[in-house]
Amino acid sequence: MREPIFKTVLGNQWMQLGSIVRQHYSLTPFSQDYVRVDGVMEEIHHSLIAKLLIPFGVLFGAVVPFRGANVPVSVHYSSSPDDANLYWDRVFQFRNQKNFHFKSYMHHVSSNEVIEYVRFGVGMRLRVTAEDGALVFRDEGYVWRLFGHTLPIPAGLFFGNAYVEERPIDANSFSMKMELAHPLFGTLFRYRGHFSIASNLSS
Fold it and tell me: What are the residues whose beta carbons fall under 8 Å from the beta carbon of 61, sequence distance 6 or more?
């Protein structure tokens, strides 16, 4: 029987996650499992300096280019029968804008490290841990997947470092926050919100 993708990533830490977090990361590899969570981003923010980086981030599908408050968001998690990756489609419903899709996939590298890839093979290495019931991602540098090779790139000099957490609120909901902070320019991008599971289909 296949284990959930993130149970493999976390190993013994898996059971330290809150049950609501385990539920929406219960997708198994090489399957057609699917989970949707719905919620509201109370804040989506980027700094004035970050505006200079947004065209490059949008080109690679790596940032949300708008600001907003109380923005409805649906996050679609899915696995594929062809591989062991976890696929994301985050749908931001900004007022007076077309829905904005932020798509990526996570590939398990080794131990508790994954790489989250966006367009053109650009990715962020992430160390994954369970902390006080929360699932926490800390970035460990950027890479470019090119001709079958994973090459480090110095994108962190411009975008800084990422911190992401999903933390249980109660048995049915969890909070989420992301911050991309630069050592010289402070927080460039951040968002925070709360979610609950809307659909959970296992193959």
Answer: 102, 103, 104, 118, 119
